[in-house]
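quick one before i forget lol
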Amino acid sequence: MAFLLHIDTASATASVSIAEDGRIMRFIENKLVNEHASFLQPAIKNMLEDAGMALNELDAIAVADGPGSYTGLRVGLASAKGLCFALNKPLITIGTLPLMAHAAKAAEKKDDIFYAPMIDARRMEVFTAVFDAAGNEQMAACAKILDNHSYVAQLLQKKMLFFGSGAEKWKKICTHPNALFSGDYDTVQSFAHLSFEAFQFKRFAALAYSEPQYLKEFYTGS
């Protein structure tokens, strides 16, 4: 039996949750973009009290480490590392893009397409990557400026599902018949699933050296 705390402040909506063996027990979110820092510690305290748990009963802390909001990523990772250091617990980092892809696959249940999460990075730029249905990376995470030739190699192979906060602006210029579009998917359960898998296989991050995956350091949007 393993109890994991999850922290996700990578986007406009921040959340914390507790899961037992990959199953969500408690969950709190905050949709006020500029208040992630003030939300985080009280939310963790209230959630643990509601669950009747103490901090030292946690077995690990998992954090979404980006890409995403520059400020949000710093807040989340700093809080997670501080808790891990104080409690002597392992740190688990989960990338925002594979997390989004896992959630999309869980919802769509399609094995014959590529999944392309897209996080808006202002103007015509997005944070993105491409994954197959098994979660294998087909295009590495990057900050991509969209144009008519984006994703051509992947679109020629099979249908692709584009989703997330950056998908709408790509939809306006993409005319390829293999392109499918959707909005956001709920990542809460996927976060619990991926972090528990990492815990089971002891895929822990180096506490002293873990840094957010900014991809480009000047991005500060929600």
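fyi The CA atoms of residues 75 and 91 lie 15 Å apart.
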